[in-house]
Every structure is written in structure tokens, then in C-alpha cells.
Amino acid sequence: MFTAQGPTLTELAVQALSSTRRGYDLLAPAFDHTPFRTPDAILDPVREALETVGPFGAGLDICCGTGAGTALLRRVCTERVTGVDFSAGMLDVAARTSPAGPGPRVDWVQADARALPFRGAFDLAVSFGAFGHFLPAERPLLFAQAHAALRPGGCFAFPVVAPPGPDSWLYWALLGFDAAMRVRNALWRPRFVMYYRTFPLPGVLADLRAAGFSVELVPLAALGRRDDGAPRARLVIARRAGRPVPSGAS
Hints:
- The protein has a domain of 168 residues: Vaccinia Virus protein VP39 (Rossmann fold, 3-Layer(aba) Sandwich).
- Helices cover 35% and strands 22% of the residues.
- The chain has a seven-stranded mixed β-sheet with strand order 3-2-1-4-5-7-6, sandwiched between helices.
- 32% of the residues are buried.
């Protein structure tokens, strides 16, 4: 499951017994060698979908980790890109490994996604693989912060994968993981918040609309379809109301 450069089971155990922030600080040097990094198989279809929606000026990667989504933003944004994460360790790796070359400049900001230090500053915000770190009750605040960070007409975009059915081994694996995490957090402090089954699409769409977004779902065709014909993954494009601000305008 992990490469030779990835964390050992002992290191993962230590991280899992830490707080969410401290756990990611510890995991950061090896994070890109684990399955937790968003793979190109997801990033590439998302980028292609966003290229049909843009162009975009300024981009924000919420919970950027080591910068996989930030690299995507450099390909669809023309003005500037900002990665924000609460883990100093993850930001340090992102800053050191961010590829050089043509494209907008990248800034790295340490902040909690529930208290973003931005207002009306971005045309596009994305997030990859981070929503399991927020409890369902925190979604309204998280989405309100994303909404506030966008300019009028700006988009908040993220992929969602269709959940596995109960006839799949993955269904039971994720159910077991979440159950174990709930027991861990009931018995141990500090908490490590990471759940796989707390982001159901109907509730997510309701919370996005309550935050002031209009929402569109775009199938990510490259990721295939389930046996029932439904897309395996969709891109959620949540748009803040208003006329988009021309690139370079304040």
C-alpha cells in the first residue's frame, strides 16, 4: 500500500494518536508517498472540466496539503494562486516541492479553513480529499468561508466520488474505519478527525445552497460509470452569485 519512502506502521500509529494538525505535521515529509495524496487520475479530469468553465484569475486551494491541487490551479488560473492549510509541516513540504516554471505565482498561507483570512479575493476555490476532516456540523461554516473568499461569480469546485454499495468490500472497510475512529475519539484526546462517510452528497448540496451558492454537477467521464450507469465521480461546481470580476480588476 505504501512505498519504501512512506511512513511505517509505527509512525502512522503515532500520527493517529496525535491531534489532526500535529498528525499531519508528522506525516508531511512522507505524505506524497502514501495513497492519501490526491492522484493525477482525479486531478487531470477535474482540470479538464475546469478549463471549460474558466478562465479564472486568482485561485485558492483550501486545505492544500502538499500542493497537489495548487499545481492544478497554476494551469487554470492566470493571475495568482494561494494554498492554505492549517499544518505548517504540510505547507513546508508544499513550498519546497512546488514545481518551478511558467505560470502564476504561488503563495502559501497557514490558516484554518473554518476561519479563512480572505474576503472577495478569488475567482476559483478548490479542495481535494480534505472534507473528512470536518464534522457534518462544521460544513455550513466551511462553505460560508469558501463563499466569502470568492469574488462575485466565483466558483468553489471539488470532486465527489459515488459511495460504494454494501455489496462492496470497500463499503465495509470504510464503515469499519469510521467506527474505529469514533471509538478512538471517544476514548482518546486529542481527537484526530478523519471520517470517510460523513460527506453525503444530498446534505452537501443543501449546505452549499444554504451558504448562498448555486450548484452544478458535472460528470467526470474519464473516471467511468458504475454498473447502474451513474458516474463514478462528479465535479461539484458551486457558484457565488454576481457578475464575474474581469481578471486583473479589483
